[in-house]
Give the backbone structure.
Amino acid sequence: MKAVGSARNGQGSGPASQQDMRRRNLSVVLGAVAGNAPPARPLSRADVAGRVGLTRAAVSSLVDELIGRGALTEAETAPDGRVGRPGRALAVSDQGPAGLGLEVGVSHLGACVADLRGEPRVWRRVERTNSGRPPAQVLAEVAELAAEAETEARALGLHVEGRVLAVPGVVPNGPAGRVERAPNLGWCALDVAAHWPDPGTVPEPENEANLGALAEYWNAERAAATFVHVSVDAGIGAALVIDGRLFRGARGFAGELGHVPVHPAGLPCACGARGCLEQYAGQAAVLREAGLAQHGPAVPGAAEADDPAALLAERAAAGHAPTLAALDRAGRALGLALTSAVDLIDPDALVLGGTYAELAEWLLPSVRAELADRVTVRPWAPEALRPSVLGRRGPVLGAAQTTVRRIMADPTLLPVL
């Protein structure tokens, strides 16, 4: 990305456009340093100027501001073998600004703090049955976990600049802070701020499948530009990334893969319809078919549930026939639903995330078989379906990195220190 050298003439000119130009140039300079990952030689101010197409004086001013906002550091003189006075090495700060990601799952709570390089520095996960509990109680426990994570981050020299909460539900476009529905939690039309104990630390909610997809795109070595990310925990969600951008739909409701009908006259679903994918490929359905339903999410107030995905993987690895049959059945139902996504969207890849990334060894063969049978109008390679590189950590990492990405796009969001 090149720097902006001049403002547009006409209506866009004036003080506002000058501010926009500087904001963009700050982002370009910060991005140039961030993109210069080891083992490449560290960049000096002169190096950055050569890369982004600005004068050394302009880059020096921008670098000074980024240092003043805590985004960059300038290390001791780095020898580079060139004739002349070597420049000082610039680096994205591993202290200072950070993003806090939080997660409410049906059977767990999570927290992650990522520094400005996007590196996770704090991880917290607590197994906790949240389905059916009062939202205020659940969110109070998330807030407590968030406070613990921020305390640990401060000890590392980090300060949180933004908070995002991953939830297994629909977060509509429009005013921030509302979860329209999260059926597996029992939430409906929930205003997060109204139930958050500290008004100064209210996180922005976002669908966990969306955050998992963004984390996959930001962190995978060779991420596809257009892909469908399937996120499975207690329910099944999906997210669509098109040309590197999240597609939310007209109202923010895109990605409800778990409620795509695979058997129109089939089993009733909690959503009120029949034959939804979750009733055949969801975690509860697989546990039921494997004869392990007692190991699913506990009722409110009961002892914490086992780890269903780990239990299924253990039984499958041991050759437990009912578990293997249940996973094959789930994979075929998932393949049936994904066939429609492939034909409609024409993605480069399908990514299986969440807990089912850990079950890919047993799920992928039947999903691939179903896709091979049904995707007939376009080329489709079996390897285009793959497990997530992040697994369960995707949503909470994506939540933390959302703040980081916003800062990288607009460093003026950071206060001047």
In short: The chain has three domains: 10-92, 98-212+395-413, 222-388. Residues 98-212+395-413 form a domain with the Nucleotidyltransferase; domain 5 fold (CATH 3.30.420.40). Residues 1-12, 298-304 have pLDDT under 50 and may be disordered. Residues 321-345 form the longest helix (25 residues).
